[in-house]
Design a protein that fits this description.
The structure holds 3 protein chains of 3 kinds.
Chain A (H helix, E strand, L loop, with lengths): L10 E12 L2 E12 L3 E5 L6 H9 L6 E6 L2 E2 L10 E4 L11 H11 L4 H14 L15 H13 L5 E5 L7 H18 L2 E6 L2 H7 L2 E6 L2 E7 H6 L4 H6 L4 E11 L2 E7 L2 E6 L9 E6 L4 E4 L6 E12 L3 E8 L4 E7 L14 E6 L4 E4 L2
Parallel strand pairs in A: 3-8, 3-9, 6-7, 7-8
Antiparallel strand pairs in A: 1-2, 1-4, 4-5, 9-10, 11-12, 11-14, 12-13, 14-20, 15-19, 16-17, 16-19, 17-18
Helix pairs in contact in A: 2-3, 2-4, 3-4
Chain B lengths: L13 H22 L16 H8 L3 H34 L7 H13 L2 H14 L6 H26 L3 H8 L4 H30 L2 H6 L7 H10 L4 H29 L2
Chain C lengths: L19 H26 L2 E3 L5 E5 L2 H7 E2 L9 E2 L1 H33 L6 H13 L2 H12 L4 H8 L13 H26 L3 H8 L4 H29 L3 H7 L6 H7 L8 H32 L2
Antiparallel strand pairs in C: 1-2, 3-4
Helix pairs in contact in C: 2-12, 3-7, 3-9, 4-7, 5-7, 5-10, 7-9, 7-10, 8-9, 9-12, 11-12
Classes of the chains: A alpha+beta, B mainly alpha, C mainly alpha.
């Protein structure tokens, strides 16, 4: 599990061997990671994986059972939420329904003891930043979901927190708005230079916005790395399966030599791929092959290939998925781009084909 | 030609039953209201519209008695409802905003106890209690008893309201540097206000309404409107009773209507 | 729900955990002193000796319960035979409360169903209409009922004028008048729980039954009623229990012949004729009955909840 935040960066948040238990239930198991200043950091995982718990611990809403959390080098466990220089954008925004938009945004500054005038002036600036100046005097209930979401952002950013925590802030929006907000959030993060810690279960959201992603499952940190690394080089079965689509094939490792592993898929198929630390000769593990890194041909090519029969073609708009039945083996999905430039040739069902693999497409996974 | 409906939800006869139900509920109240404006000395004959029995209530022979009873009723209702609402608001916060704890079920049972125990039993028990500790019966005993049985009525709308308020509002407030106390006074309390007002109004009406318990714990000479009316009705229904009843009825209807519109305007959010 | 196991999926919050004791203390104190302690004291009084001018002498005695259950003959020295006087009063109360419950159910169920099938927007208004009378003073409602039902009252006037009857109906001082009074007192308790369960009912089930050739009334009996049964049972108990111990309706509408528990108890505390230990014992017996019924309801609802998942 690599931690690629370089030592030169200032560390904003450091999670040090943190465990969280509720009675007998363990929500988080020994999590350690550091988040750099100015980073857009995402905690990604399915519901119940512990990502929200971790976020709420940083905010101060949950006690830490074991371990420490540091904020710019200071231990913050003893501080109540109202003494921590972090602010949260809540999943359902939690805009105070009995206050106007401006009063909502000014609330934090007022609580910090600023004068009413100063707080309101700053609130005005924040509303300008999120392009909602026109709605300053409205009640939150009079705004659309997207507008409420921006108010929540403005409110959390107004006190200039050292770290902004975002708890699935886009999940209540419809698809179009959600996609637009991704870019806005990313731009806002660059503009303000504030560290963002973003919680989501949506892998696409995580991949498009994040500098780095921590994939979590079952209270454990599964993989930590840059968005691209997580996608291209998943560490284990969970990450490969959770992020994007993939073909998961059971293999046994015949030989490991010179950083290359020779794997037996059964049915007489042998593939060679990069060796992975911890997987030695004789291991029975899974192999991940992304469907877009496969292509079909009538005959053998220079690439490694598997022979099979086309079972079906599924049209999914941008792509065409071809399902190929391997001889005595599992089905394998091949994705080809639906464009004239791509190799969008349709192979009819029943046809014998070769499934070719781009170099580095096959990855061995730790279970 | 009416087409036969196939609406699976509709049952013939249910609408007439509903109308019968509403008639049974409202007819007596409407009749009494109408007869309270009767000019006649008798309650049986109708002799035209008049306000004489309303005038009689305020200036007649028994005016002083009813004024004193009304004063007792309203002051007791006001103090009891205010106290019960305060206690219920604190209790609801303790029940719904302080996590799970061992005494939770027991506390809930205690709060709803006055609803489960038949009124006559509460009345007997309270009388015996005051008697056993040598507390002289009078205004204070009525007030104390009213505070106790008003608590669950105030508690119900307040706790229902609080359960509907996500705790993320308070968390957001504390995330934005408010202390716990500020989160309570600036966020939770204003959001709970509709529930608190409903709770207060219901407690007020319940207190104003009570006859049985009051009848047991009131001392000699201290009357509330219901006990005074009961005493008078025992001698037969007189027109001035109908005038008092109509006024009391109007107070209840107005308060319940206010409570309804408060909760409705809030649901619209 | 992204919070998932983290927040336990429940809306319960622990923001004011530290202040819990102080928040609950006033309610605990007031209710313990003014409800729990009095009931305990009532239990104690039921085992004391009666004082003839009202009140008690602090001497242990089973006389109150003995008087309730045992007939010891004219001179009070015979062995215990079952005393029927008070058991009969209790029995009549149960019977009256039961009849009032059935009356409330027959009228309340169609009403609750009708309201629950109105458009969602107007439902609160209907519920409001049903509950208004409940908030009007019970005494005033009962007096109004008596006024309308009197021999020379508006109801008889109307019936005589339309020629439906030749002599006024005698309704006041009958069992029926008491039942009507009890119905009037507690109807919302019947309508509201039934309304709540019909509102939750998934009408697709009725459609499925109709699709499978069930008639409307068969659907009502075989599909709808079983689904809303918990609401119906809750409504019945919520009407039955307060009816059992009611005082105003039997006293004002029933007259001396239709004496119920409430009046029996009340009489024991009035003036010099009363018998406090006996009144306390009667109240204890009533309370025990009610608590048993409520316990059964609680268990039944717990089971229903379990069944619902």
């Amino acid at each position: 599990m690599g931690n690629t935040a370089s030592a030169a960066d200032t560390v904003a948040v450091s999670i040090d061997h943190v465990t969280k238990r509720y009675g007998t239930f363990t929500a988080l198991r020994d999590i350690s990671l550091t988040i750099a200043d100015n980073e857009f950091f995402t905690l990604l995982g399915p519901s119940g994986c512990g990502k929200t718990t971790l976020l709420r611990m940083i905010a101060g809403f949950e006690d830490v059972t074991e371990g420490e959390i540091y904020l710019f080098g200071d231990e913050i466990e003893t501080l109540p939420p109202n003494k921590r220089p972090v602010n949260t954008v809540f999943q359902n925004y939690a805009l105070f329904p009995h206050m106007s938009v401006t009063d909502n945004v000014a609330f934090g500054l007022e609580m910090l003891g600023r004068s009413k005038a100063e707080a309101r002036a700053r609130a005005g600036e924040m509303l300008e930043l999120v392009q909602l100046s026109r709605f300053a005097d409205r009640q939150p209930s009079q705004l659309s979901g997207g507008q409420q979401q921006r108010v929540a952002l403005a409110r959390a950013l107004a006190p200039q927190p050292k770290v902004l925590l975002l708890d699935e802030p886009l999940s209540a929006l419809d698809l179009k708005l959600r996609q637009a907000m991704r870019y806005e959030l990313k731009a806002l993060q660059r503009e303000t230079g504030i560290t963002f810690i973003f919680v989501t279960h949506d892998q696409e959201e995580a991949l498009t916005m994040s500098d780095r992603i921590a994939v979590m499952s079952d209270g454990r940190l599964q993989q930590l790395g840059a968005a691209r690394d997580i996608y291209e080089a998943p560490h284990n079965v969970f990450v490969a399966d959770f992020i994007g689509e993939t073909n998961l094939l059971e293999v046994s490792v015949n030989e490991v030599k010179d950083d290359r592993a020779t794997c037996d898929l059964g049915g007489g198929y042998i593939l060679s791929c990069d060796a992975v630390e911890g997987i030695g000769q004789g291991a029975h593990v899974h192999m991940s092959i992304r469907p877009e890194r496969l292509f079909l041909s009538d005959g053998p090519t220079e690439a490694q290939s598997l022979e099979g029969t086309v079972r079906d073609n599924i049209f999914v708009g941008t792509d065409i998925q071809t399902i190929v039945a391997l001889r005595e083996g599992p089905d394998i999905t091949v994705r080809s781009s639906n464009s004239d430039r791509g190799n969008a040739r349709i192979f009819e069902p029943g046809r014998a084909v070769h499934v070719n693999m781009e170099a580095g497409a096959a990855r061995l996974l730790v279970d | 030609m009416a087409r036969r409906t196939h609406d699976i939800r509709r049952y013939p006869g249910f609408l007439p039953m509903t109308i019968l139900c509403l008639t049974l509920l409202y007819a007596p109240l409407i009749v009494v209201t109408v007869y309270s404006f009767n000019a006649s000395n008798s309650i049986t004959n109708w002799e035209g519209v008049s306000l004489r029995w309303y005038v009689d209530v305020f200036t007649g022979v028994e005016a002083d008695k009813y004024k004193r009873a009304a004063w007792n009723s309203f002051t007791i209702a006001l103090i009891a409802a205010t106290t019960a609402t305060t206690i219920a608001t604190l209790a609801a916060t303790g029940m719904i905003r302080s996590g799970t704890f061992r005494l939770r079920t027991l506390s809930f049972g205690l709060i709803s106890l006055p609803l489960m125990v038949p009124e006559i039993v509460t009345a007997v028990a309270t009388l015996i209690f005051f008697n056993s500790i040598g507390f002289v019966r009078g205004y204070t005993t009525i007030l104390l008893a009213h505070i106790a049985f008003c608590i669950p009525f105030a508690y119900m709308p307040i706790s229902a309201r609080m359960q509907g308020i996500e705790d993320s509002y308070e968390q957001a407030a504390m995330d934005l540097y408010a202390t716990r106390r500020q989160a309570f006074t600036k966020i939770l309390l204003p959001l709970m206000m509709p529930g608190i007002i409903s709770g207060f109004l219901l407690a007020f009406i319940i207190s104003l309404d009570d006859f049985i318990i009051t009848n047991f714990v009131k001392g000699a000479g201290v009357e509330t409107l219901p006990t005074a009316i009961f005493g008078a009705v025992k001698q037969g229904i007189k027109p001035n009773i109908m005038a008092i009843s109509t006024m009391l009825l109007a107070v209840s209807v107005v308060m319940v209507t206010i409570s309804y519109f408060i909760s409705k305007s809030d649901n619209a959010k | 729900m992204a919070a998932g196991a983290a927040s336990g999926g429940s809306a319960r919050s622990d923001t004011y955990k530290e202040a819990r004791t102080w928040l609950l203390l006033p309610a605990w104190a007031v209710l313990t002193i003014l409800v729990l302690a009095p009931v305990a004291m009532m239990l104690v009084y039921s085992f004391l000796t009666k004082e003839f001018r009202g009140g008690v002498i602090w001497e242990f005695s089973l006389a109150a319960y003995d008087q309730f259950f045992c007939n010891r003959g004219l001179f009070g020295d015979e062995p215990c035979a079952i005393e029927w006087t008070y058991i009969n009063i209790f029995w009549r109360s149960i019977w009256q409360a039961g009849a009032a419950t059935i009356l409330s159910l027959v009228i309340g169920f169609p009403t609750a169903y009708f309201i629950a099938t109105r458009p969602e927007r107007v439902r609160p208004l209907w519920v409001f209409l049903i509950t208004i009378p409940y908030w009007v003073n019970l005494l005033i409602r009962t007096v109004s009922m008596k006024f309308v039902l009197r021999d020379q009252g508006p109801l008889n006037d109307l019936l005589l004028a339309t020629g439906l009857i030749d002599d006024p109906l005698r309704i006041v001082n009958t069992n029926f008048a008491v039942q009507l009074g009890l119905f009037y007192s507690y109807l919302p308790f019947m309508v509201l729980p039934i309304y709540a369960s019909v509102e939750r009912y998934n009408f697709t089930l009725s459609e499925a039954a109709a699709d499978l050739y069930a008639s409307k009334w068969t659907t009502l009996r075989r599909v709808l009623l079983p689904a809303v049964k918990p609401g119906v049972i809750a409504g019945c108990i919520l009407v039955f229990v307060p009816s059992l111990g009611s005082f105003l309706a039997p006293d004002l509408l029933g007259g001396a012949k239709n004496f119920m528990i409430g009046s029996l108890i009340e009489e024991q505390f009035k003036g010099n004729a009363g018998n406090w230990p006996f009144g306390a014992a009667s109240a204890m017996i009533l309370l025990t009955m009610v608590l048993i019924i409520l316990l059964i309801l609680a268990r039944q609802q717990a089971r229903a909840q379990k069944g619902a998942g």
